[in-house]
Amino acid sequence: MGLARTAVRAVEVTYTGRQAQKLIVANQPERAIRLVESKAGLVVGDYRSRARLRAKLDGYLSGVADSVSMQYVLLLVATLGADRHHAEALRVLEVYFGFGEGAGDLVARVRERLERMPDVHRVATLVALVPFLATVQRQSEGTALLAADLGVGPAPEAAEVRDKVARRLAGFPRRFALGYVQMVALSVGELGAPPGTEVALLEDRFGLQEDDYASPEHLGVKLTPWLRAVPGGAACLTFAVLAQAKADTDPGKALALLEWCVGITPDAYRDHGRLAGAWRDFCDRNHPEVGPTFWRAWSGILVADGRHDEALALAAADNDVEPEVLASPERFGPTLERRLQHTRTDTRAAYVFSLVSDLADIGERDTAHHITDWYLRGYANLWRVPADGDPGVVHIIPLLGRWLAELPHREPEFVWQASEQAVLYLRRSLLLGDSQMPDRREFITYVDTLRRQILQTADRWGDGRTPDPERVLQAQLWDAELGQRILFEEFLLTRVESLAPAEVPEDRWPLRQEEPAYWDSHLPDPDTCHDEDVIRLLGGPPGVPEDDAAEARRGENGPPAEEPPAERAQWLRDAEHLVRQGVTRELLVDMLGDTGLLVRVGFRADNALVWAALRRGDGPELTVAAADSGRPGDLWRLRWAAFRHDLGLLLATGSQRQAAGTPGTPLAADPAGAVMDPAESLVDVLLPVLASLTAALDRARDTDRTPEQWLAETAPDVTGLDSSHSGTASRERLGNRLAGLLRASLDPEWWPGPMGEQLAATTEVVTRHQAAVRDRATRPDGRNALHEIDDVTRAHLAEVARIWPLDRLQEHLDTLPDQSHDLVFQMEDTLQSVPVAHLPLPDRTPLYARVRSVRVSLSVLMTLMQQRVERRFATDTRRILVVSHFNPVMDPDNAEYARWLHHGQRRLAHASGEGMVCLNAAEEPPGVAGALRAALDEYGSFQTVTVCGHGSAAEAGVRLGDGMWAGGGCDWGPVNLLLLPSCSVGRLEQTLDYDVEGLCVRLALHRARSVLACRWPVITPQAIAFANEVVACYLDLRRQADEGAPGAVNLRARAVNAARHRFLRGGDTRLPGEIVQLNTVAAYELYGLG
Questions:
Q1: Looking at 799, 834, 863, which one is the last position of a domain?
Q2: What is the pTM of this model?
Q3: Of 773, 799, 825, which residue sits at a domain end?
Q4: Looking at the DSSP assignment, which residues form a beta bridge with residue 629?
Q5: Mean pLDDT, the chain, as a whole number?
Q6: Does the pLDDT at position 993 exceed 70?
Q7: Is residue 493 classed exposed, middle or buried when 0-12, 13-18 and 19+ CB atoms within 10 A define those classes?
Q8: Which helix or strand (DSSP H or E) is residue 554 part of?
Q9: Total structural domains within the chain
Q10: Within 13 Å, how many C-alpha atoms sit on residue 646's CB side?
């Protein structure tokens, strides 16, 4: 019976697959889905219920061999995917294989099924499954399946991959081997194989030698059998994959391969009729989707190789028109519509985007704009957005950004309408599990470009320096909404991982050294923190190397427990609801309350800084309290300022390493053999590079040299900064950072004059440090390195204030009582590194001294999500938690100060009375990441949780006893305030200038409501003192609130501000008797709710 049922199902599934494929080719994917679903009796509602979906699949596939049941499941998944129903497709796989969202056993479950199947079906299954997993952001698991099937480990050599693929496919028919080898070629990077492996792999499979590319006859002998074995154009797309990879090293051979596929020779580009005829024949004999996809690869290689005339000829031939017709949308438009009539919506959008981009790249900007303008004005899905969104959104958004930048200024009202429609369009068109990670990250850059263009659009209605408040407000609302979308895309990119619990922290002393019971304060004893003592801590390594047992301890508690899928699913549904809701005035009024002042700071398309302060008016209206904009290029200037600040700190702290004798910190030697400290070696490698750059720039002023030539001339010197000549320069990637700043010189507006100013200012940072060192040598009882560190921070704040003056904001604050309002900043790009609370107002008062509190919000979406979590989880528990780790053997200096962290918070708990408990983990019980999970599991909620150890901006985490903790493993919803007195973990690093990422973002994604963290390296006892003072102020404010104190809101942000006043008293100089200085206080930022 089983054999008969299997045979019947095999025939039925095979026939259904062929029918579904015909419907998809006919651009009727919904009919194809209904056809495949009907075999198992599936309806739309079944995908929402695992039980119903499982019952129907079991009913149809019961008693059928695995190979046939898998064939049906993959057919269903592929058909759903053809119409972008990836969430439903993933649910089918989850039910069939029996794994859940985020489950760690996906690979094991799939491999178990595969092992019971014939080899040819196993290969076919992988060819379908691995690319799909990449599409739904589970690429690592798809790669693991592929690596297991090949039998390769991490980072295999090219020869090993080639050998394993050859062995794996020995004896396989070409139609099965083609898909597999293409899958491996596209996964080379994920497998860890070296670049170029994909070329060698594909050439092996096709039997191609280098000489074959020069002969169409040789290519025909090698490749024609593949065309015959795999009809429909699939083989041609694999050839295109090979050509794109080959183009990196030899574009001529790559083009020869593509030209052979189409049946032309290089001289055909000059014969429109011949080229158009051959191309039309190629498209007619292949699947409708093949032509546009193949053309994009072909055109891209021509453009990248500088063959602009050929690219233009190909674009014209693709639409069977003469090249001059491309510039006339009225003539070209109908032809383009006919060309794409049988392709899917997203394929059409992708084609137009590629066409426009290529035309712009070859200098046909006007033609590119005319086509964009014609296409978007008539793009129905933009102006009447479908209920389930537009599948072409990933290509339409970059077109919109280009369009808004190029629209004539004589149509300002239409540009405004188009901006509004772009926001509404994006609100409806979400990409839920519908894009691979690199594509989604690229999409984020396009949304950011659109944001900046819309901000620039708003400024067109300004009158001098007095912008139209209504336009400014509306543009800020749109910008906030696009910012929400960017962060939502980040949510979808983030995997929520869990952590196995370790030993539960206890209400006792956790260190082997004795508790300093003599000291009756939550702050460290100043007699143990003299400047001459803490100077020894400066310039230590960014993270202490993990000891030998750490890796073992990390896994000793077994595999991590999984977060319940329902929690993450509900969290994403909440975020989706807020994104679809959009950002309205009423929403912001409700979010800010009576005392909130939201300051949103960003950059226009010309990189001018633009900001607006929004607050609730006298009634329920949202008003613009203050607004202003800067000069084009502000973003570039701020990036240079951030670079100089980091450089100044490296010099000030590095000069102390030799004296400190930090374990594991190598000291350089000069040519004479004398030992140099890290700051000296950094100066020795940096000053010659800056001098070389400046000299080359001076020479360029007197010649016709271009910025590109200047960059090429100076590149070796800049790259050399990252060599081993200076450990500090290499570790901090100064060469890479400097190269990025210099690339801005490619815009003639910044070269050569402004570039020279930035180089001179950077050289001054180095010479100023040298003067400070000389001064300390001649006046040993005068200023020390701690003073220099504060000077560096003061200089940075002053430079930022010159670029971003706060005159308009002070004018508004002057109308308000002091200490009456709570400022919330939303910033982007390099502004994330600016200690905004300490920015000087025009009267030189630090901003934090004029207001009740200052904090940073990652976005409107994040704030709204955190407010929802707050309503659900806010607690009045009487517990606090402290977890720390400093290795007493490898890092005895910092370990010595850990006692003040635990003693201080234990004292706060005991002094507060009313049953307050302070749980601790450090040495006994150990300060490991699992202790955080164990404490939350055991006790449920905490007022504050403090996690202290060596932080790392590069790894975005804190090193605990079991390794680097990167923020995962816990649901932080039940914690009112999370404190991280650890170096650099509050640094929100920019990725390609668009989004923020880092430990604070990951913590927010794990429902942390409020996080206090350091944005740059800090001195351990000072960081501990500030964190303990914040805890003290917060607990005191909560006590006052419990006793009925009025205005009991934003207690966390007010506690941070109170701590600032405790140590600096509204100025920027450390008070006598206090151990905490400006640089440490300014390093701290509160992210999230107040």
A1: 799
A2: 0.78
A3: 799
A4: 610
A5: 84
A6: no
A7: middle
A8: helix 550-555
A9: 2
A10: 22
